Amino acid sequence: MIKAKIITDKHFKLDTVDPRIFGSFIEHLGRAVYGGIYEKGSSLSDERGFRKDTLELIKEIDVPIVRYPGGNFVSAYNWEDSVGPVNERPKRAELAWQVIENNEFGLNEFMDWSKIANTSPMMAVNLGTRGIDAARNVIEYCNFKGGTYYSDLRKKHGYSDPHNIKLWCLGNEMDGPWQIGHKSADEYGALAWETGKAMRAVDPSIELVACGSSGLMMPTFGEWEATVLDHCYDTVDYLSMHTYYNNFADDSADFLANTLNMDDFIKSVIATCDYVKGKKHSKKKINISFDEWNVWYHSNEADKKLEKWTHAPHQLEDVYNLEDALLVGGMLITLLNHCDRVKIACLAQLVNVIAPIMTSGNSAWRQTIFYPYMHASRYGRGLVLNSIIDSPKYDSKNYTDVPYLESCLVWNEEERAVTIFAVNKSFTDEMTVTCDLRQFEGLKVTEHIVLTGDDLKACNTEENPEKIVPYTAKDTVCENGIVTAILPKQSWNVIRLSY
Ligand code: AHR
Predict the structure, then answer these.
(1) Given the residues 39, 80, 140, 173, the one annotated as active site
(2) CA 4 to CA 431: how far, in whole Å?
(3) How many domains does the chain have?
(4) CA dihedral sign, ordered 294, 104, 118, 214
(5) One domain, residues 247 and 270
(6) Strand partners, 290
């Protein structure tokens, strides 16, 4: 048994969580769209072809924003291909993932689907093969009331009201040599500035995200952020961050310690944003859009063997296990503990492609990572309290002083609730955690949800979709405002309290 303590004070307010931190991502990639959220003619779909079972699971999570249509896909995307009569839409050789895109599902279908899924779009424009012109046209199509070529075209396509899309990404991972239309930081920064200027001229109410590095490992990391922001600081609101972790080394202790890397990454990008702020003597603060994050590696070998130029292949179909859920939980905690600067985040992705939700022709099911994501989205809205974690620590191959306990506290004043999210990273010991919350008079335990299991490699599959599911712990107490909980070894925990 190990012991840990969470030390906090209700006056130590970090910030209110922007609900968009619980966003996700649908790219035209693999079976995310086709066979994922959309399957025309299936008995599981509605008359428009939207998969009802997938929609139900998405609503269960409560996903506030969905990034679309890419990803790498967006960098060679012609948005015009995806609107108008379906039978007139062109089939394209999709270069990023080397598949055939038939454009049966496009921009307007996505907007219809978003409404039913109770979510808002986060749209990306193509700054790879295209630029200012396509971006100003797509925003005129989406957001202009009427009386212009593109807004009238939207009306002709059956959408009399503008879509009013508020959040736009200026391209995707433009620092990556794999990106179609890859650019240097100077080239991209200048283009982002001019594109943002034109888009804002069409609709001044939008918010814009500039591309940061595609990862901390990029050789241009740091310099890229500073140079890009030097160009476009005044027109953008957010800088993007992306990260994916893997356990190729099969070293679970080191794998779970990756939250330290994520934490460091966030701190470095914030420092760079603020460096440019200082340099420019600007009053404006650039916040973070962590718009791609997850575990991604299980499907890498299978993807190498895929036949090219097929439609909607089984691509990037990672099957997630318990340790992946623990890392995803830790990553959610890390994002929440930076909610003063991370305002947007997207679990990449949502369905079938490195996703919490999987489908077949017969059913949809929850992967292990579904649970921490759903819990954080449902119970993590409110105000994050700063806390000090007093926990035993371990060293792993790449990290030193990794606390066994990772945690975060969210106070929802309106609902008179406090939630503790916690991961016990020990594979051998359960952990007794205490937290003095006497300032919340009358505090009692509502529920202690636990996700754990004996086998770190256990997964949920179509045949066995409930191998790893949460249960309610019974022995958690709150006596005179002191919460005491036992976190099983290798577990994700949600301790819900109310007063
Ligand atoms: O999410 C999968 C891919 O990862 C995205 O298309 C790209 O932006 C990133 O490299």
Answers:
(1) 173
(2) 7
(3) 2
(4) positive
(5) yes
(6) 345
Structure tokens at 194: 């001019």
Ligand 1 pocket mutation, candidates 31, 98, 173, criterion most atoms within 8 A of CB: 173
> Same domain, yes or no, for 288 and 162?
yes
**Domain stop point among 379, 405, 427:** 379
pTM: 0.98
Residues 456, 344, single domain; the answer is no
Catalytic, 292? Answer yes
Cα angle 281, 282, 285; round to 5: 135
Distance CA 359, CA 371 (A): 16
Q: How far does the centroid of ligand 1 lie from the alpha carbon of residue 281, in Å? A: 34
pLDDT one digit per residue (tens) for the chain, 499 residues:
999 999 999 999 999 999 999 999 999 999 999 999 999 999 999 999 999 999 999 999 999 999 999 999 999 999 999 999 999 999 999 999 999 999 999 999 999 999 999 999 999 999 999 999 999 999 999 999 999 999 999 999 999 999 999 999 999 999 999 999 999 999 999 999 999 999 999 999 999 999 999 999 999 999 999 999 999 999 999 999 999 999 999 999 999 999 999 999 999 999 999 999 999 999 999 999 999 999 999 999 999 999 999 999 999 999 999 999 999 999 999 999 999 999 999 999 999 999 999 999 999 999 999 999 999 999 999 999 999 999 999 999 999 999 999 999 999 999 999 999 999 999 999 999 999 999 999 999 999 999 999 999 999 999 999 999 999 999 999 999 999 999 999 999 999 999 9
Task: Report the Cα 402 to chain-centroid distance in Å.
Answer: 24
Question: Under DSSP, is residue 322 helix (H, G, I), strand (E, B) or coil?
Answer: helix
Polymer length in residues for the chain:
499
CA–CA dist 129, 295 (Å, integer): 29
Where do we find the tokens 């239309």? 181
CB under 6 Å to ligand 1: residues? 27, 70-72, 172-173, 214, 292, 348-349
Q: Judge if 356 and 451 occupy the same domain.
A: no
Query: What are 483's strand-pairing partners?
Result: 435, 478
Domain that holds residue 409: 2-10+385-498
What gap in Å lies between CA 270 and CA 479, rounded to an integer? Answer: 39
Residues 323 and 448 in one domain: no
- Which ligand 1 atom sits closest to the C-alpha of 348? 1
Same domain, 202 and 336: yes
Helix extents (H) in 117-184:
132-143, 149-156
Which residue bears the tokens 């859009």?
Answer: 289
d(CA 209, CA 175): 15
